Amino acid sequence: AGGYYQRNTGECVDEDECLIETNCEHSCENTRGSYRCVCNEGYRVANNGKDCDDVNECQEGNSGCEFGCMNTMSSYKCYCEYGYQLYNKTHCENNSTVTNLTRESKNDTDTIPTHPTNSGQILVIS
């Protein structure tokens, strides 16, 4: 029966389907009598069981962004409103506060400056 083969000794052995063409987009994990496709971080297995779809952390509310969230392939970026800068990847601080925090612990900051565009939208500069 599929997923197993019988040795000359009569022993049934699990066949590693991942060694055969599985058409998994990212990677394959052998299971007992079958296999499953596995996706890299930031992706999930699509409905067809083989392709990988980007996870939109912003829509799913998993980003932790204090002000705004922008989805990227396999990840996301937080951004802040005008006059604020990103601190520790998810929090927005007043520009003067961020400047002081950056001086105190430069290695712990992730500052992405933002400014409004002519249309009033927020532009993320990284």
What are its keywords?
126 residues; 11% helix
Describe the protein's architecture and organization.
By secondary structure, the protein is mostly beta strands. The chain is 11% helix and 37% strand. It has two helices and twelve strands, in the order E-E-E-E-E-E-H-E-E-E-E-H-E-E. Strands 1-2 form a two-stranded antiparallel ribbon. It has a two-stranded antiparallel ribbon with strand order 3-4. A hairpin with a 5-residue loop joins strand 11 and strand 12. The longest helix is centred in the last third of the chain and has 10 residues. It is rod-shaped, with a radius of gyration of 23 Å. The N and C termini lie far apart (54 Å). The C terminus is likely disordered.
